[in-house]
Amino acid sequence: MGQKINPLGFRLGTTQDHYSLWFAQPKNYSEGLQEDQKIRDCIKNYVQKNTRTSSGVEGIARIEIQKRIDLIQVIIYMGFPKLLLENRPRGVEDLKINVQKELNCVNRKLNIAITRIAKPYGHPNILAEFIAGQLKNRVSFRKAMKKAIELTEQAETKGIQIQIAGRIDGKEIARIEWIREGRVPLQTIRAKIDYCAYTVRTIYGVLGIKIWIFIDEE
User: What is the value of pTM for the model shown?
Assistant: First the structure.
């Protein structure tokens, strides 16, 4: 049967870059990997605690990490940085202190930059958070998917596919529902496709959301 591969890993080196850029000797590699995970988790938790949003969207599209010998450079791509920064001029400073506590890096400097994305709803992570918020509020899943597709159409993407799996609407038997708009050429390596998988904890169980967005062809 069709073997599905993660579209981001499939396109590494052509239209997709790594989200972490650093080099490590084989014996230190796992430490570096865990460190990256810690940084990402810490930032996500901090943003979750400190943003007051109605729709439940944190708005982090992706977090890029670059490491040099004496410096860790973290770039956070956010859809709505205002939510994190307003009323709190030292938002980034607090975040930095938090991450440094988590890592206890003594001899390395930590740099955190926040970059705003022009069209937030063209990013699968932000969309998935939006759908998750809707599902938690017991909106019917079809409505949520259609709304999400409307939002991406404003972001001028060429195609989108959304898949929700699990006990949809609290039914006893789990199923998979999906919806596609435009074209999503997963086989074409030239096609720049953004993808994300996101889990939602609802009252009646865990649902999985997968989103593929076809941005453009090179």
Answer: 0.88
